[in-house]
Structure formats: structure tokens, C-alpha cells
Amino acid sequence: MIDLVKQYWQQYLWGTPAHPTGLVITLWLLVASLGLGFILAVPLAVAKASRNWWLSIPVSLYAYVIRGTPLYVQLLLIYSGLYSLEAVRSTPFLSTFFRNAFNCTILAFTLNTAAYTTEIFAGAIKATSSGEIEAARAYGMSGLTLYRCIILPSALRRALPAYSNEVILMLHATTLASTATVPDLLKVARNASSDFYMPFVAYGLAAVLYLCVSLALIRVFRSAERKWLAYLR
Amino acid sequence: LHNTLFEGYGGLLWNGTLQTIQIAVLSLLLAFVIGLLGAAAKLSRNRWLSLLAQIYTTLIRGVPDLVLMLLLYYSFQDWLNRLTDALSFQQIDIDPFLAGICVLGFIYGAYFTETFRGGVLAVPKGQLEAGAAFGLTPWQVFRRILFPQMMRFALPGISNNWQVILKATALVSIIGLHEVVRAAQDAITGTSSKGASQAFFFLSIAGLIYLALTTLSNLVFMSLERRYSVGFRRPEL
Description:
The complex is a heterodimer. By secondary structure, chain A is mainly α. Chain A is built from 12 helices and no strands. The longest helix of chain B is centred in the first third of the chain and has 34 residues, at 10-43. The chains are: A mainly alpha, B mainly alpha.
């Protein structure tokens, strides 16, 4: 057990500057997919909450398909499925993009979390009280200003508890990157386990690290809620 | 007939689908029972029991399901091998089907514990006391008063957990179970020797099968919700 820890602790945490591995990769996957997913989810949520069917139906369909299929299947489809298509392989840009496991993983995670986040944000936008919107309209706000100044600030705050749940689930989902050869924390644990044949120690170390990250995230979101949802207490 | 569909891999995919449904339903049942026990432990007046349940739910919900799956599956196999070695028996291989169900049930039992705890807390306490005052045994109080009302509150959570379990069955292919994702991968390997890879086609089929299963279970849960809401008026907004 000591040997395993001695040999692998650095890989579990950050690897080397040239080849980062483990926790650093896991956190990077989490931050990148959540950030990109957030940027996608805000306009999609506005579209989904809109009364215009041409906007809301396609977004609902997208969210339905993504939420109705496992992320593992989505990742496999993007990582090995798309590359098997002749059209992708013969286009130089697509070919280089989809050959890279890291790109595929982040793309799959982003599309996945964007769907769940859209659903959360759209629910919060729809729950905006109509009085607030009427008041804003009475002040002469319209369209973009209304969303920027009134609807989004309060909707995103109200979405915070549900969004924190999604962040934890996304942390758990990043483990799937190990199936696409991305050297994340679980991949290091799998290597260590097969190297020393000590599954309990190897996976147990990873489990403890994931648990610490989960608990830290919960703590961050709790203080964020205390700050931004103070008026609801 | 289905052997001629999908380039001869229809049968394989069909069996994989059946396997997926079996794993999901059996893990759901196990998780349901563990969830009821866990909620009872968490709400019990015995401090050690509630602490134990608290540790269980925190640990399980804080660690990714895939990590837990690999940890439990390979550790148990490892310990079993050491035991059989020490007793100089023949090596026993854990059946992946049974192991998959146990691991999924154990993991999602933690999520069910939280769902049921919320459901139990939502039932007015006076009703349970009234039941006891009428001379009902604790089991009768549970069966006739607590459970039917708790289910109404817990149903959205149960539906959500079921969808998560159904999608988590895709992960058990990683510990060697022949469910639908594995069937699709086998079909890809089987057809790839005949020229162009069919990866996109077969993986899309697997995705569509999952989509059909989640759609079907949505319908089932909608009718269950109607059943358990009998006698309650929907607030009109």
C-alpha cells in the first residue's frame, strides 16, 4: 500500500507539468464543461421559456433527447461514433478535432450539462412573478434589458440550489472520461489498481479525493446561497 | 425475425435490451428496500442507527457511481480470491449480473433513503399518532397510513431516481455485463471486419433504445402519480 501511494501520489493529484493527470484533469474537465455548458444554457433556457413555439420546441427536443440517454452512450457516440463517419474523417478540421479524446470528452460533457442546466434555468425563468415583469414593462424596459436587468438576475439566483446539484452530478460524470483514455483521477486509479493489484486501496484513494471535492463544492454553494439568496431567509 | 434486422445483430441488441431492463428493475427493487430501511434508520431515535445511515448517504452520494462500482466489484473479487487462496479452494468468480445489481442497488439505495426521508417527514405526525391511538400495530400504521401518503410526496423523487438508475445501467458494461451498450459495441466489432465501421449506426440504436425506455417509464410514472394523488385536488394557478 505504501509503495502504491509513493509511486502514484503525484499522478493522483497533478502528474507532471508536461503530462497533467488525476485530480487536476478532473477539475479542468469539470470547469471547462460547466463553463461552456453555462454559456450555452442561458440562451437556450430563454428560448425554452419563450412563448414562440419555433424557439421552445427545438430546445425542448434537444433537452429531452440528452436527458433521456446515458452520458456514456453520448460520449461513445461522439468519441468513436462520429469518427467512423466518412464525412468526418475526410474533413481535415473535423478529423483532427474528433481524433482528440479530450475534445470529444469536453464536447460530450458540455452538451450533456447544457441540457440539464437549460431545464433548471428555464424552470426558474418561468417562475418569475408576473408582477415583476409588468413593473419592468411599465418602466419602459423591453426585450434584452428586461432579461438582463430583471428576469435573469432573479431567475439564476433561484436556480442556485438545483444548479449546485447539477454541479455535483457533473463532477461524478467526469469519471466517464477515463473510458475515453483521458488521464483523469479515475484513470490513474485504474492504472494503479492494475499495476499493484490492490483495487481497494487504488479506488479507495480516488473515492476519498472525489468525496473531498464533493464536500468542498457543497460548502462553496452553501455560502453562495447564503450570499445571493439572503433575501429568502 | 429480429435476427435479420440490423445486419444480423438484431437478436444481440434485443437480448441486451432485455438485460438492461432486468438489471434496472432488479436494482430499483433493491434500492427501494434499502431506501425504506435507510429512511427508517435515519429517522429513528437510536443515535447510532441514524449516524450510520447519515454516513452511508453522505459517503455514497459524495463519490461518483462509477468509482463506487469499480471499487466494490474489484475489491470484493480481490477479497474473495484471497479467502479462497487462504483456504486453498478453487477461485470463485463473482457473477457480474448479480454484482451489478447489488452495486447499483446499494448506491441508489442512498438516494432513495433521502427521497423517502423527505416523504415521511411530509406526512403529518398527528395521523400516525391517531393510528396508534386507534390500536393499529406499527406495521399497520406503516402499511395503511404512512406508506400511501408518503408515496405521493416521494413519487417525483422516485421517478427521477429510476431514470438515473436506468441510465446508470449503461455503466455496468464496464464491469463486463452484456447489456445494450455492450451489445452495440459487440455489433460494432463484429461488423468492422467487413469494411467501414458501423459505430455511429449501432451506438445511435443504443441511444434510441434508451430514449424509448425513458419515454415509456415517463408514461408509467404519470399514471402512478394520478393513482397516488386520488383524493387530492390540484391547486389551480
